[in-house]
Amino acid sequence: MTIHYHGTPITPRSVLHTLAGKHFCVSHAEPRDVAECHKIGQSVMLDNGAFSLWRAGKATDWPGYYSWVDHWFSYPTTWAVIPDVIDGTDEQNDALIAEWPLKERGAPVWHLHEPIERLQRLADCWPRVCFGSSGQYAVVGSALWHERVTMAFNAINRRHLPWIHMLRGMSLAGSHYPFASLDSTDIARNHHRPQNNAATMAARWDAQQCPGRWSVRAEQAYFGLGETNKREIAVDSTLT
After folding, report:
1. Could you tell me if residue 139 is inside a domain?
2. CA gap 120, 74 in Å, rounded
């Protein structure tokens, strides 16, 4: 079954309470709902906030993140995303994994622009791995993105896949990819719209499940395409 982690903060607090019993994602960059989510949530995913900080041009505080995560690990169903550098090198991200002090309840991030070999190594060593859209694969659902994710699942396909979490990937709920979990701030950003209701939105997302297995699929290379053509392919693509 695919777990859908609903991103926070969700305001006002009364709206958050309508989602009691759901799964939540709380970012270290915006942690105001973390205590409440642990009171009412079925499980909580702790995000390192690297993407938000990177986008805002702010510095990271990994020792502070380690301490924060360690406190909430008293809840047995809570897990955390290991710190990563969004536009960093393999070496930088591997160094952060090596520094991670809280062992198997953390999940490393494989960025789609990184070598497939790195994903294979992470999948062999960790029970849970996060996919992060990046580089030329930053647009979730583009043709290039689909091709890269197909290549990734082909590379790690085996009888029992590791737990793969798609960061900022709720739009892939119900797709043919075997994601064990996904997260999104869709409810936090859009529940206030007149036509929306937070509980109804969550129920709709939670009802969309991904398959438990992967069948190897053909891969199409985009080598030789100019940047203009790549952008056109991305614009014309749709989710399958």
Report:
1. no
2. 30
- State the residue range of the domain holding 22: 3-134+163-213
Residues in the chain: 240
| pTM score of the predicted model | 0.89
Residue 89 lies in a domain: yes
Extract the tokens encoding 48. Answer: 């390192």
Rg (the chain; Cα; Å): 18
235 pLDDT higher than 80 = no
pLDDT tens-digit series, residues 143-177: 999 999 999 999 999 777 899 999 999 999 999 99
Q: What is the DSSP string of 82-142?
A: PP--TT--HHHHHHHHHH--SGGGEE-EEETTS-HHHHHHHHHH-SEEEEE--GGG-STTS
Q: Which residue has the tokens 């080598």?
A: 223
Q: How many domains does the chain have?
A: 1
In SS3 terms, 52-79 reads as HHHHHCCCCCHHHHHHHHHHHCCCCCCE
56 burial class (0-12, 13-18, 19+ CB within 10 angstroms)? exposed
Tokens in use for 104? 């198997």
Q: Mention every residue, 6+ apart, whose C-beta is less than 8 A from residue 147.
A: 219, 220, 221, 222
Evaluate whether residue 236 is within a structural domain: no
* Residue 229 covered by a domain: no
**Cβ atoms < 10 Å from Cβ of 15:** 16
pLDDT per residue over 16-56, tens digit each? Answer: 999 999 999 999 999 999 999 999 999 999 999 988 887 77
